[in-house]
């Protein structure tokens, strides 16, 4: 998935920054504005949070989903690698 990797590289992240990163195919229905295939990232210096990214069907843009798997978060709910704009992967599923 070159688009996901390109998006992250444009944000300044490199392969050495990741503990884990790969394409996933969720078993549940996600937001119908996005392709089912997603990209999952765990950063080495933030190993308690799993970030998910999707590709918008209309625009082709890669977007970070607001939902994350979090073992620890700050009191304000922000995580280290939050992007300024995210979309909900679990809305708009009808």
Can you tell me about this structure?
- The structure is a single chain.
- By secondary structure, this protein is mostly beta strands.
- 10% of the residues lie in helices and 38% in strands.
- The protein has one helix and six strands; from the N terminus they run αββββββ.
- Strands 1, 2, 3, 4, 5 and 6 form a six-stranded mixed sheet that branches.
- Strand 3 and strand 4 (62-65) form a beta hairpin.
- The relative contact order is 0.22.
Keywords:
single chain; 94 residues; mainly beta; 6-stranded mixed sheet; 1 helix
List strands and helices in order, with pairings.
Layout: H1 2-10, E1 18-24, E2 34-43, E3 46-56, E4 62-65, E5 69-70, E6 86-87
Parallel strand pairs: 4-6
Antiparallel strand pairs: 1-2, 2-3, 3-4, 3-5
Instruction: Please give the alpha-carbon distance between the first and last residues.
Output: 26 Å
Our estimate of the beta-strand percent is 35-45%
Q: Please summarize the sheet with the most strands.
A: 6 strands, mixed
Described by the principal axes of the CA atoms, the overall outline is globular
Number of strands: 6
Low-confidence stretches: none
- The whole-angstrom Rg is 13 Å
> How helix-rich are the residues, as a percent range?
under 10%
Structural class: mainly beta
Overall pLDDT score = 88
Question: Number of DSSP helices?
Answer: 1
Order of helices and strands: HEEEEEE
């Amino acid at each position: 998935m070159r688009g996901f990797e390109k998006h992250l590289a444009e944000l300044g992240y490199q392969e050495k920054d990741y503990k884990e990163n790969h394409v996933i195919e969720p078993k549940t229905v996600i937001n119908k504005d996005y392709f089912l295939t997603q990209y999952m990232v765990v950063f080495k210096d933030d190993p308690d949070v799993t970030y998910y990214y999707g590709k918008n069907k209309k625009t082709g843009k890669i977007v970070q989903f607001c939902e994350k798997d979090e073992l620890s978060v700050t009191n304000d709910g922000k995580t280290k690698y939050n992007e300024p704009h995210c979309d909900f992967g679990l809305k708009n599923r009808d």
